[in-house]
Amino acid sequence: MRDFWSRFxxxxxxxAGLAILVIVVAVAALAPVLFPxxxxxxVQRPFLPPLTMDALPLGTDALGRNVLSxxxxxxxxxLLIGLVSTVxxLLIGxxxGALAGYFGGWVDDGLMRFTEFFQTVPNFALAIVxxxxxxxxxxxxxxxxxxxxxxxxxRLVRGEVxxxxxxxxxxxxxxxxxxxxxxxxxxxxxxxLSPIIVLASLMVATAILLESSLSFLGLGDPNLMSWxxxxxxxxxxxxxxxxxxxxxxxxxxxxxxxxNLIGExxxxxxNPRLSRKGK
Amino acid sequence: xxxxxALRLVKAAVILIAIVTLNFFLIHAAPGDPAAVMAGEAGAAxxxxxxxxxxxxxxxxxxxxxxxxxxxxxxxxxxxxSYRQQMPVAELIWDRLPxxxxxxxxxxxxxxxxxxxxxxxxxARVGKWSDTLISTVALLFYATPLYWAALMAxxxxxxxxxxxxxxxxxxxxxxxxxxxxxxxxAQHLILPASTLGLFFMxxxxxxxxxxxxxxxxxxxxxxxRAKGLKPGLIQRRHIFRNAMLPVVTLAGLQAGQLVGxxxxxxxxxxxxxxxxxxxxxxxxxxxxxxxxxxxxxxAMVLLFNLVTDILYRVVDPRIRAS
Amino acid sequence: MTDTSSVLQIKxxxxxxxxxxxxxxxxxxxxxxxxxxxILCIVGESGSGKSMSANAMMGLLPDLVRPTxxxxxxxxxxxxxxxEDALRxxxxxxxxxxxxxxxxxxxxxxxxxxxxxxxxxxxxxxxxAERRTRAIELLTEVGIPDPEKAARAYPFQLSGGQRxxxxxxxxxxxxxxxxxxxxxxxxxxVTTQAQILKLIADLQERHGMAxxxxxxxxxxxxxxxxxxxxxxxxxxxxxxxxxxxxxHPQHDYTRKLIAAxxxxxxxxxxxxxxxxxxxxxxxxxxxxxxxxxxFGGPERVVHAVNDISFxxxxxxxxxxVGESGSGKSxxxxxxxxxxxxxxxxxxxxxEDMATLxxxxxxxVRKSIQMIFQDPFASLNPRSKIGRIIAEGxxxxxxxxxxxxxxxxxxxxxxxxxxxxxxxxPHEFSGGQRxxxxxxxxxxxxxxxxxxxxxxxxxxxxxxAQVLDLLDDLKTxxxxxxxFITHDLRVAAQICDRIAVMQKGNLVExxxxxxxxxxPKSDYTRSLIEAxxxxxxxxxxxx
Lengths: 279, 322, 542
Hints:
Strand content of chain C: 15-25%
Mean pLDDT of chain B: 85
Low-confidence stretches of chain C: none
Number of strands of chain B: 2
CATH class of one domain in chain B: Mainly Alpha
Largest interface: A-B, 45 and 54 residues
Strand order of the largest sheet of chain C: 6-7-8-3-9-10
CATH architecture of one domain in chain C: 3-Layer(aba) Sandwich
Structural class of chain C: alpha/beta
Distance between the termini of chain C: 27 Å
Structural class of chain B: mainly alpha
Distance between the termini of chain B: 11 Å
CATH topology of one domain in chain C: Rossmann fold
Number of helices of chain B: 13
CATH class of one domain in chain C: Alpha Beta
Oligomer: heterotrimer
Order of helices and strands of chain B: HHHHEEHHHHHHHHH
CATH topology of one domain in chain B: MetI-like fold
Radius of gyration of chain C: 26 Å
Helix content of chain B: over 70%
Strand order of the largest sheet of chain B: 1-2
Number of strands of chain C: 20
Shape of chain C: globular
Largest sheet of chain C: 6 strands, mixed
């Protein structure tokens, strides 16, 4: 573990990314404390520019809502959806990849055709269709993102399992009479952990981008203030109020950047020799 | 080669049928009456129209029969009717398709050319400041929300500097013809195509750089050096050609994302393509249009994948033989 | 050979390794000469730094590895002081190099003749058409069948031996004064190796080149060297004429290395027939099919194992010997059912291993275990040694505590400290890992052990120790051993009987001494004649 940290630390970008992420997480966690009022509530006149009032450093939007408060609550939505949808994709992708890689043959053929299908389908368009048809809500958004994001996980895990399966220690485990389930869970999957962790950190970033894009198009959960929604709502007034689109976008950029940097750091720390591509 | 193409076409057809089937089940999984879903926003369609739909698609018959009717329709290029726009969906899409093809092709070319160039440059100066600069910029592009980059580009180049048009496909009321019109469209194309290309430029740059560095550690590069070849030649002939193989594969895989990105770019720039069509359909919950655009964009991706696969076989003799 | 001119003199060469390496210098205070028209072998085990001086003179050292002292004089010019441009001009023209892996040493996307023509292009010689003609001439000279066709081929269309010939043709193109050969035959089969060694020796004579031949194999040294330099941990420990060094090694390390080489002398085995049979294989067949189907093109069929039958006596060691692609490993894998044979039976205590499935297979498989080739891939990097050994018995219902106690005993048995039980695989060397692998195989108290190239990845001195251990355990525990190997020397040392395989067929089965002294089939004979260093050994034995 200390080894891991010292290697992670060597990547300065990753440390910076971690710092940014810690800030974002803190803001999200403290949002209800910092801004007890609902972010949807009108607090001042509309289109108040940034730095004109101390209480509203980032100004107000077209309906007089506090932009800074919106950003803080938006962080919650981004992190929540990014994290949960990644966990769901892992729960779909890991078993599919592990079964395909371990059993091979027609199991592999079938599962991989299935995976290929989801990989070929334009994933953002599919996410739009899914959310639109099932009506926007946190659940439908998480589901849609997970459905379009799991194929890379399955392919990665399958590849890893396939190469580990022919590794001699797995063959030794087969000969020593261990059951398939034991071999997959105890011999193989623990050794695929590092690349999965790296991929997962990048997937959280992609999920946040996806969520914000959906919200931008008006497919966000109508009850939640999210960064993408803020930009989408400000799109038509960009000529009058640049700050309404600028700050939420910048927040997304920094969060996604932080996660990507952390992913690279994890990659350096966990796979010292190999640097794999998640995509 | 011919058999390979035939095989791939069959595969593409199977995937398309699967997508249509998926669309069909999505309509039925949606909350509410399938006829109402097909007609668009609930309550917007009148009873007579709903009744027509029910008869046309046999909505009172068993599910499999319905699927058959639906599939047969798609095979005849019938993607349904947009009640909202009072036009067949296929016609709507057909009108908008050229603009999207122009936009995505331009974005693809820009991102591939600039991305690989930057990647080669960075790999040649690995660890130096220019590599750091290129890699950092790529990382930023990689993390930038596409639609936000588009908005900021409009703000900067169109609103502030007034260098380029930030809206539409050509000047409204310009009535340009011939070459002047081409130039006008090209001017309108620059901002959308480059913002759509940003993310992909970063992807190709990172891939090219990593791949160049990896290939340069391989044994045959050592052989080339042992021959006494000049570094530039080794770079071009031995490293670059081998390093491009994974980039080509990636380009094929990314095609789907390019079409998805077009929805966002076209929305911001009011580019009259199928992406903008999808955005408008979203607001009106015009499901037939949504599903139609989804189907056509999947078909575009399949076509593009076919092209990259053929390209791959041309470049790599090992695949050709197997 | 006249002892007149040294083409190359290395004086006091020191090459520093990056920080954090296992020692400060890759080579330290290394000096030797290379004379015109001789073959100098640099011998050493892995990590001895034997390739470093050659890479340094080509300017091909890995990043962060730098020469820090000494000089490399090529006709009085110090190569270490030469500019990159001047050195590049020498490369390929005056000094040429061939590498270990002919598979990866050629650009996969370029045709063979284009790659040879590049050598001329690099030095601005000849017109493009002339380059092509020369390429074909060179391919003819290195003995590639159908050179016109080979010239237009891509590397993946050639065999390993042919690729190495292409590399040699490339190296010869500009008639260099020095040819550096870095383990050029290590990746090749023994018969191909013999052909390549002969080719290099012939070309050396015909062109009067000086050859620096880097190898780990004393057999190869005996076959080809005029002079030898033995390296250990970055230093030259012994240096002299090949005959002297091989017959009267002075340094302890050299003596140890030479003593560790398995001798080609096979003892007369006790009659195996009188013994009880541990395993009987009847008509074992395994065929691989690829392609075919609706769109897959013509089906390719490989008969990996073709109707093979043999018996293994209790307490016997049976060698299965063959080159790559002979099917020897498939036989081993079919015996333990890591692969399912298409036909035939494997009789073990009256059960047919070949057809068992499920729970029954799991139980019967206890008595037939395997030792693997790669000491680094054969242990789960995330498991402690104790668990690795105890897992098998636990899976078969032995209480964990008892299984771990047994694991400690087994570690002791294979010559490791029982405290190893709480450590991870990466803390052990290759030889130690192989001992752990043996302990794991023994944990289920098998009657039969299949050793699949179990010592091939080890250095020769470690190899000897592991072979001794196996032999000892076999006698003590009354095991029967199937020993699969490509190395006839190893087979000669450890096996009672030997089965020779070629392209899936069993070409000959007999006692070890019969196989070596009286081979019946032509193929066996060609295999034995190809063993490097054999003639010298025969001569020495009188």
